[in-house]
């Protein structure tokens, strides 16, 4: 007789400390600073949910994805939105499957029902039957239950939790605090292996103290220039270091202004890629200001922001000195003033100037 085949247990990778986790994250191109790596390590070691708050695009969601990749765990994602309910977050009964099941039993049930002359008796008989409709096999499993039922350890990402109504938090609490889910018709399922839970929030509403109490909390702000440069080169290796440095400087300058939306890391990466394309396609632009204006299309998403920046950068109004009149739109990680003034000729802009006057349009004409 051959031995029964059992699939090898996936290795549950644990990290010894923050430094080891930081390195593992770097290998999957996620660049964390020392403090953040230690906090994430703590959350995994203590198996406590980690609530990440902070402005858009600073790497909250990406942390969960990268943690899953670095640890070899599956990522289970619950995307929150207004109106999210138990049916989408936890489980739903699969009515179509239940109906099919009943239809298959119809003849057998019909035979038994034939024995009753009285409708009330027949109905009582039916009510007392267990057709097995409310068992695990008729459940459509949604992310929270999936994380609990998973035989292998997972990273559970509860993304943008502040978008749900507060009532959803009660549901989350059972999962986060007890590591379990109760389905009235079936019973309570307890997590087979504790998920590492990452919750993210953009702080659009205050989360309940009960939810916060169960989590480690960390505010993820904009990165330091060095870390942002590292992120750009990790995510877009085609970008030269000098170009990355220029785009990062520009973004940091913009973040000092009272914009509707400050440039996120993702937008800085886009702008750096755009700078590389501009350079490689030889789009002729006459000045650093013209290049910068093109890069603004990647960095800014509101006309009013673009106008404000153009006014400020054209020198009509001086830049606020050292953070000046306005605080950055969101906490900045250990802010230092941008190392170079925004209008210094730098690597992004070198090699573009001189030939044509009049920006992109003129450049195209020049090539015809
Ligand atoms: N520390 C980092 N290391 C590597 N890439 C990063 C890092 N932070 C951000 N990024 C890049 O920025 C992108 C946006 O990050 P992410 O989607 O995680 O932002 P977020 O904080 O979840 O924003 P939002 O609040 O809008 O959802 C990522 O896809 C990634 O390319
Ligand atoms: Mg996100």
Helix % is: 40-55%
If you average the pLDDT, what whole number results? Answer: 82
Basic shape: elongated
Helix/strand class? alpha/beta
Largest sheet geometry: 5 strands, parallel
Order of helices and strands: HHEHEHEHHEHEHEEEHEHHHHHH
* Relative strand content: 5-15%
Count of DSSP-assigned helices: 15
Our Rg estimate from Cα atoms comes to 28 Å
Hetero groups in this structure are: adenosine-5'-triphosphate, magnesium ion
Q: List the uncertain runs.
A: 316-345, 351-368
Number of domains: 3
Widest beta sheet: strand line-up: 2-5-8-1-9
User: Span between N and C termini?
Assistant: 78 Å
**Total E-strand runs:** 9
What does this structure look like?
With 368 residues, the protein is α/β, with parallel strands linked by helices. The protein has three domains: 18-87 and 149-219, Rossmann fold; 91-137, no CATH class; 225-367, no CATH class. It is built from 15 helices and nine strands. It has a five-stranded parallel sheet, sandwiched between helices. Strands 3-4 form a two-stranded antiparallel sheet. The longest helix has 19 residues, at 95-113. The radius of gyration is 28 Å and the shape is elongated. The protein binds adenosine-5'-triphosphate and magnesium ion.
Please give the structural blueprint:
Layout: H1 18-27, H2 34-46, E1 50-53, H3 60-71, E2 74-79, H4 86-89, E3 91-93, H5 95-113, H6 119-128, E4 139-141, H7 143-149, E5 154-159, H8 167-178, E6 180-183, E7 187-190, E8 196-201, H9 209-213, E9 216-219, H10 225-235, H11 241-255, H12 265-281, H13 288-299, H14 303-313, H15 359-367
Parallel strand pairs: 1-8, 1-9, 2-5, 5-8
Antiparallel strand pairs: 3-4, 6-7
The chain binds adenosine-5'-triphosphate and magnesium ion.
